[in-house]
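ok so i was messing around last nite and threw this chain in just to see what happens. nothing serious, just curious
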Amino acid sequence: MEFETSRTRENLQVALAGESQNATVSRQMKKHVKLQDRGQAADFEADMQLEKDLARQWFEVLNEGPVNGTLASLHEAGAQSGREWSTLYRDWAAVAEEEGYQDLASQFRQAAETREQAAKNHEQWLAGAHGTAAPENG
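result:
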């Protein structure tokens, strides 16, 4: 079976997303408890580091090794931003609206606009790094 179309690859993508999400939750929890209990904040810090390490591990498996330098990282970040703003957030906004969640639909549309700008910024930086012209941000 081809790895690109395997369920194992899909599972790795879910694992990467899950660990990234877990790291975000742990970071938020650490901030919340830091004011009350520094020991518990340290526990959340350790959890967050583990989650980040697992996310990096799954990312490297999916990308056949570590990211190879700044340009490779920016190409991947730009591609991800493009998927987010052009498809995911717009589709999710339509679903949220259809289900009656107008506020969330609006938030998804705003996220799409924000990610679109980030994708344009990546394009401009990469164009400069490669010595080519990119469209102006607008």
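not much to say yet. Residues 6 and 43 are 36 Å apart (CA to CA).
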